[in-house]
Amino acid sequence: MSFIEPKIRLGNKTMTQDQLLEQRKRNSKRYNASVRYGKDSKYTEFYQSSQWRSKRKRVLLRDKYLCQECLKQGIVNDKRLMVHHIVELKDDWKRRLDMDNLITVCTACHNRIDHKPRRRPEV
After folding, report:
1. What is the 3-state secondary structure (H, E, C) of 9-56?
2. The pTM is what?
3. What is the domain extent for residue 62?
4. Same domain, yes or no: 84 and 122
5. Which of 23, 49, 70, 95 has its CA 20 to 30 A from that of 102?
6. How many domains is the chain partitioned into structurally?
7. How many angstroms from the chain centroid is the CA of residue 50?
């Protein structure tokens, strides 16, 4: 009797554990290239700064390492967490380290968050 590798359903695709791992690596590389280490060095420097790392740690501690969006739905989730800027950096650079502008979310909730289009400054 041979072992059948379990399949994982992701959206409308079914894949093996290895295929899922490879997809996550590709997505991570693409994200890092475009967002973390992209052309805009101002943001890259910020996310690599000790100020951000310290603030990020404080936000995670404040939120008890739980996704706050999942908690609103009564779900306790402490997997794949990130600290999210409620008002994006591009919209308000001054609030980048404001505790009231930072929230702990899981990757799934972060991907669901709808960012409002930026207002163009009136001239």
Report:
1. EECCEEEEHHHHHHHHHHHHHHHHHHHHCCCCHHHHHHHCCHHHHHHH
2. 0.63
3. 55-123
4. yes
5. 23
6. 2
7. 19
DSSP-based three-state secondary structure for 107:
helix
Q: Is there a single domain that holds both residue 72 and residue 121? A: yes
Per-residue pLDDT of the chain (123 residues; tens, 9 = 90+): 566 667 777 676 788 888 888 888 888 887 777 766 666 678 888 988 999 999 999 999 999 999 999 999 999 988 999 999 999 888 999 999 999 999 999 999 998 886 655 554 454
Q: Which of 67, 78, 51, 73 is nearest to 103 (CA)?
A: 67
Query: Which residue type, as a one-letter code, is found at position 100?
Result: D
Distance CA 19, CA 7 (A): 10
Q: Indicate the SS3 state at residue 7.
A: strand
